[in-house]
Design a protein that fits this description.
Helix content: over 70%
Radius of gyration: 23 Å
Strand content: under 5%
Largest sheet: none
Low-confidence stretches: none
Shape: globular
Order of helices and strands: HHHHHHHHHHHHHHHHHHH
Distance between the termini: 16 Å
Length: 471
């Protein structure tokens, strides 16, 4: 089940609200959310509920054991900590990486390692990282182990952010698992945020996907330079509105139920450097790697050689986190290289340029990165990149008869560009958000119109999963 589906909008969410809000006892409210989250996860892949339940059990039992033996100053605390981390990573490796690693090893080994063909459990990378951060924080004494299984299970499986983030730290909602309130204002603001995210996904991202799929689902030789660049721009908008739209919906739903998640996007397409881009894009993931990998390795407070090692490790892992394929590794190292260059000399060099040129250069680097991210076949990827930088003519008019809907996407691009800027949000906050008069009524009417358009479009379209569901 996805948020941008009629079954979620008209069945699941209303049913959960009807069960949740009449109850005042927080213990029962948590149970409703826990049960709803398990049903939400089991909607399409019932068998993999066992995986997330096993992960919850690991987090619960080992969290308690780590805390108990830490208080006793016993070395067993370290043993249970390492064992818990290993167990969680094993689950992730078995379902997500064993096929990729073993198939590549089989190319060079004199014998063949058996490979299991498994369907990737939805959201396993997200909830595994949440559990890892919880266990690390318990071991380091930053948080206390949760003694209530339902509370911990609610944190791990909370359906608003279960399958595509943001990656929520336990400390962020620890208090809200024990005590929270949903005011009318919280529910209203959360609903508005949800509708905004739904609009990003259905109206913008899904339409951008038409052109992006038309370009990248064909062989590179079928498209010329101009068309590939148009497809790359379309995919840049598609993945931004897809993922930030999901984050908006997750944050909005969380607010409706009394949780306050941290922001996951801050208008990354206005960044004027790659460093700035990663302060704005998928903030929960980049901060996770910063706090749990980069800084423990020594961060930038070490020799230049070790710093380069740290950057390469973090961005290799960042690429692998996204997917078990060579293009994701290349994508991660691509960003790692740009970040190293910026730190070494590029930022000082480009700061002398006009602001608009720095923005255009950064956007250029970002657009190229999404081509690497989008095309999993390495031969096809090289073909697309070659045609992007070595001019190849093509008949653009064929789009009109091969994929007429892709032509309309070009009309959406100016709207997508404007929606990627903070201007609309600033306008809304200044004139509409705090107003109780006519401006407030107009703003709410706009949200109703967005919701209506989304429903009409969902009724006429097929299944449209989020890109980050497969991670």
């Amino acid at each position: 089940m996805v948020f941008s589906s009629l079954s979620f909008l008209f069945f699941f969410l209303p049913l959960v609200c009807c069960l949740y809000f009449p109850i005042s006892n927080l213990k029962w409210r948590n149970l409703v959310l826990f049960t709803a989250s398990i049903i939400f996860y089991a909607w399409e892949e019932p068998i993999y509920v066992l995986v997330i339940l096993a992960t919850m059990l690991v987090a619960y039992l080992f969290g308690l054991l780590i805390e108990i033996y830490k208080e006793m100053h016993s070395k067993l605390a370290l043993f249970y900590f390492i064992l818990s981390i290993f167990t969680c990573i094993f689950f992730l490796f078995y379902f997500k990486y064993q096929r990729f690693i073993f198939s590549n090893l089989n190319l060079i080994l004199p014998f063949q390692i058996p490979i299991k063909e498994l369907i990737l459990p939805v959201g396993i990378s997200f909830y595994t990282f949440q559990v890892l951060s919880y266990l690390i924080d318990v071991y380091q004494g930053k948080v206390q182990a949760q003694h209530n299984f339902i509370r911990l299970g609610t944190y791990i499986a909370l359906f608003p952010q279960l399958v595509a983030g943001p990656i929520v730290r336990y400390e962020t909602i620890e208090q809200e698992l024990r005590e929270r309130h949903s005011s009318i204002a919280d529910i209203a603001n959360g609903l508005r945020r949800f509708i905004l995210g739904l609009g990003k996904k259905v109206i913008l991202s899904n339409n951008m996907a038409v052109l992006a799929d038309f370009v990248f689902n064909q062989a590179p030789s079928a498209s010329g330079t101009v068309l590939i660049w148009l497809g790359a721009v379309a995919y840049t908008f598609q993945i931004y509105f897809d993922f930030s739209g999901y984050s908006d919906m997750a944050i909005g739903l969380g607010q409706m139920f009394g949780f306050h998640f941290l922001e996951n996007f801050r208008y990354p397409l206005i960044a004027k450097s790659i460093t700035d881009f990663w302060r704005r894009w998928h903030i929960s993931l980049s901060s996770w790697f910063r706090d749990y990998i980069y800084i423990p390795l020594g961060g930038n407070r070490c020799s230049k050689l070790k710093w380069i090692r740290n950057i390469l490790i973090v961005w290799l892992l960042t690429g692998l986190w996204h997917g078990a394929n060579w293009n994701y590794i290349l994508w991660g190292l691509y960003f790692g290289l740009w970040l190293m260059l910026e730190k070494l000399f590029l930022l000082k060099l480009t700061e002398k340029l006009p602001s608009i040129l720095r923005w255009l250069f950064t956007l250029f680097v970002i657009i190229v990165s999404w081509v690497i991210f989008r095309v999993e076949d390495m031969q096809a990827l090289l073909g697309f990149l070659h045609r992007m930088f070595v001019y190849a003519p093509a008949d653009l008019s064929r789009i009109a008869y091969e994929q007429p809907d892709a032509v309309y996407v070009l009309c959406y691009m100016p709207l997508a560009f404007l929606a990627s800027l903070p201007a609309f949000n600033k306008l809304y906050r200044r004139y509409f958000a705090k107003s109780q008069r006519l401006a407030g009524v107009i703003a709410d009417l706009m949200f109703v119109i967005i919701l209506f358009i989304c429903i009409i479009m969902l009724m006429s379209n097929s299944y449209n999963p989020f890109i980050y569901y497969r991670f």
